[in-house]
């Protein structure tokens, strides 16, 4: 499959093609390097293509990386010009000739993992382990536009009673948090969990999911306002990192034993104190490296205490459907800041980059 229009419809000079508004990155740099402009609208190309009218799109770190030009282990450089946007909810506008299960007007939410469907990992349902794995909005144009194009197999139905902004806040953050806590971490009732970066999208999702399981949750954030917001979503013991040391708090409140699980989407200098905060035999789940991917630590603190470090990035389709089912039944409410118009895309980047927002930031194209 082609790159879902990586350079095609943005760079098209065909004046007969209908236009749309899109947040386009044409060069790497600061917040001003992502701008809303008019570009040609995508259309169906492959027979299994679907064009979606985007009603809501949530931001992720991947959007910031695309603008900044970040690349390296686990982060692929984007091809410019680029439209990012991984988390999309909207309505079907057009379907390819081989698409039978969807029709124009259907409300949908997109699963952002792009897989071949043929390799051994795909055969056992592990989409994100696919040998040809890519991410919608990173390796292809994404949903920070009025329309986007994706394969029909990546769609899930969004019930009429679920607002588009809630649907868009779900895919990356909640699927990742579910993968970490439930699928890989196998969190159990009464276990103690330390969630780092708990005011971010994945962190807030992890707090909610862990509390739903019946775990006791320590949540780390900065500032009294975020501490109060963490209490509001169920954290048993919010920790204000601006005035408290999370390793000391955990040690004191667990009589020196530590927590059973650490959920760490942050990376960097948090690794060593996070590992030391684990009980003997505890596990740390990792999915990100927001503040660094090269931590300094002693591996003896892992193996001598029977601890585990487990990678758990974006979950598979089963993980996605699990959180979507909870959302559909009203048992999970995604945490997001007030919605913003697409024209405020630069400000939305700033809110994420500077850690101002609690939970997700959702744009409404």
From TrEMBL:
Keyword Coiled coil (UniProt): no
Superkingdom classification of source: Bacteria
Domain Enoyl reductase (ER), residue spans: 29-363
Key word Oxidoreductase present: yes
Enzyme Commission number(s) of this protein: 1.1.1.1
Keywords: NADP, Oxidoreductase
A GO term for molecular function: alcohol dehydrogenase (NAD+) activity
Top EC group: oxidoreductase
Annotated SMART domains: PKS_ER (SM00829)
InterPro entries: ADH-like_C, ADH-like_N, ER, GroES-like_sf, NAD(P)-bd_dom_sf, Zinc-ADH_QOR/CCCR
Record PANTHER family: QUINONE OXIDOREDUCTASE
The protein's name: Alcohol dehydrogenase
Organism encoding this protein: uncultured Rubrobacteraceae bacterium
Higher taxonomy: Bacteria, Bacillati, Actinomycetota, Rubrobacteria, Rubrobacterales
């Amino acid at each position: 499959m082609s790159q879902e229009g990586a350079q095609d419809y943005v760079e098209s000079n065909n004046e007969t093609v209908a236009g749309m508004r899109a947040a386009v990155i044409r060069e790497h740099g600061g917040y001003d390097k992502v701008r809303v402009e008019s570009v040609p609208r995508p259309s169906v190309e492959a027979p299994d293509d679907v064009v979606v009218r985007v009603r809501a799109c949530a931001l992720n770190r991947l959007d910031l990386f695309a603008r900044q030009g970040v690349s390296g282990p686990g982060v692929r450089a984007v091809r410019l010009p680029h439209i990012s946007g991984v988390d999309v909810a909207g309505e079907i506008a057009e379907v390819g000739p081989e698409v039978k299960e969807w029709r124009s007007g259907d409300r949908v939410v997109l699963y952002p993992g792009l897989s071949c469907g043929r390799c051994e990992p795909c055969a056992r349902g592990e989409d994100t382990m696919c040998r040809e794995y890519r991410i919608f909005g990173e390796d292809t144009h994404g949903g920070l536009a009025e329309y986007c194009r994706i394969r029909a197999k990546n769609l899930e139905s969004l019930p009429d009673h679920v607002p588009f902004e809630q649907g868009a806040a779900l895919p990356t953050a909640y699927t990742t948090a579910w993968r970490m806590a439930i699928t890989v971490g196998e969190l159990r009732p009464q276990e103690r969990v330390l969630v780092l970066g708990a005011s971010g999208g994945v962190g807030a999702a992890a707090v909610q999911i862990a509390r739903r399981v019946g775990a006791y949750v320590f949540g780390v954030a900065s500032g009294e306002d975020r501490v109060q917001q963490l209490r509001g979503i169920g954290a048993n013991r919010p920790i204000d990192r601006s005035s408290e040391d999370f390793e000391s708090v955990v040690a004191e409140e667990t009589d020196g034993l530590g927590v059973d699980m650490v959920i760490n989407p942050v990376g960097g200098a948090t690794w060593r104190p996070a590992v030391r905060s684990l009980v003997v035999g505890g596990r740390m789940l990792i999915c990100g490296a927001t503040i660094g991917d090269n931590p300094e630590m002693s591996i003896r603190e892992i193996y001598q205490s029977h601890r585990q470090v487990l990678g758990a990035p974006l979950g598979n389709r089963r993980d996605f459907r699990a959180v979507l089912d909870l959302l559909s039944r009203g048992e999970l409410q995604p945490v997001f800041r007030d919605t913003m118009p697409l024209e405020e895309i630069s400000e939305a980047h700033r809110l994420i980059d500077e850690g101002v927002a609690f939970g997700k930031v959702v744009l409404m194209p």
